Amino acid sequence: MKLKHEIKNIFLKNMVVSSNYHFENVNDYYSFLLKNKPLVLKNNHVHDNVCDHRFNLIHPVGYGNKDWRCPYHNSNQSHSKKYNTFNYNDIFFIGDKIYKSSIRELFKGQKLNLSNCIYTKRHEINANWKLLVENAIESYHVPFVHEDIPEPFLTKNEYPKSYRVGIHSYDYISQKTTRFKKYFDEWYWKNYYIWPNAWVSQSQYYVLLAILLPISHNKTKVSFELFIQDNDLHPKIRDYVNKITINVIESLFKQDIPFIESCQIGLESNTHKKYNLSDNEPRVKWFYETYSEYKYKLDNKI
């Protein structure tokens, strides 16, 4: 499926746009490009972000606060086309076919606290968006690529249990901690994949939200936001754990990028025609089953 078809038939049907963290005031906005389509999230709705007077962007790309007037000729653009938008667990979704029930089932009533952000990072990766999804939803590579990441952030002796929830999936693992045993006995991670473009990693102390946007067939923008959850850790211990957690996130992604981009090169070589997946990659298999269903519907105009 070409990217322009993926944008129209996958992303604009049901995708994650942003956390609610950035929108405290009226007219706060997030303007972004979905490939070459300018959109803006503002006042709880996503709109087209192109002025109908002379096609200028109404809101510059990025975050900010301004009214609905185009800055080029001061033309009022409050009538800009509005898309169906849904806010759940402080996460904004856009789409003509948002799967609200499956999103609620995925989280099973768990409340994410996305108010106290302690870390943000944005990257552009030279790879197709699907390769980033693959990397995020499988643990098969962890013992080899991330062997220096300390517990309890990653477990290398066993693979997490994986679960499919319709078009979404998650895995879960908990373990006794030795490094922080003085402060807490157990640490868990629940890693959600939200079709098609986001994942959430949740522990009792943190929520990491990652959102990807395709730029081209071989370039993807990804953003990370880390939120601290309410907890009773001593402030000094919390600061120490915060620092370690941020370092781990940066190390993980730094170690993953070369392999993601290397897979893009191998993919474009056409050396192989299909994956030879192992039993340790069930979520990758589920992902492509969902993707194939969308492609079938597109090819057959269902």
Topology, number of strands: 15
By secondary-structure content and strand pairing, the structural class works out as alpha+beta
Tell me the major beta sheet: 7 strands, antiparallel
Separation of the first and last Cα atoms: 15 Å
Percent in helix: 25-40%
C-alpha Rg, in Å?
Answer: 20 Å
Strand order of the largest sheet: 9-15-14-13-12-11-10
Unreliable residue runs: none
Helix and strand run: HEEEEEEEEHEHHEEEEEEHH
Overall pLDDT: 90
Coarse shape: globular
Please give the count of helices. 6
Strand content: 25-35%
Word description of this protein:
Helices cover 27% and strands 31% of the residues. The protein has 302 residues and is α+β, with helices and mostly antiparallel strands. A hairpin with a 2-residue loop joins strand 2 (28-34) and strand 3. The two termini are 15 Å apart. The model has no long low-confidence stretch (mean pLDDT 90).
Notable traits:
302 residues; alpha+beta; 7-stranded antiparallel β-sheet; 5-stranded antiparallel β-sheet; globular
Entry summary:
This protein has helices at residues 3-11, 100-107, 129-137, 142-145, 235-268, 282-299; strands at 15-19, 28-34, 37-42, 45-48, 62-65, 82-83, 85-88, 91-94, 117-125, 161-165, 168-176, 186-194, 198-202, 206-216, 219-228.
Topology record:
Blueprint: H1 3-11, E1 15-19, E2 28-34, E3 37-42, E4 45-48, E5 62-65, E6 82-83, E7 85-88, E8 91-94, H2 100-107, E9 117-125, H3 129-137, H4 142-145, E10 161-165, E11 168-176, E12 186-194, E13 198-202, E14 206-216, E15 219-228, H5 235-268, H6 282-299
Antiparallel strand pairs: 1-8, 2-3, 2-5, 3-4, 4-6, 7-8, 9-15, 10-11, 11-12, 12-13, 13-14, 14-15
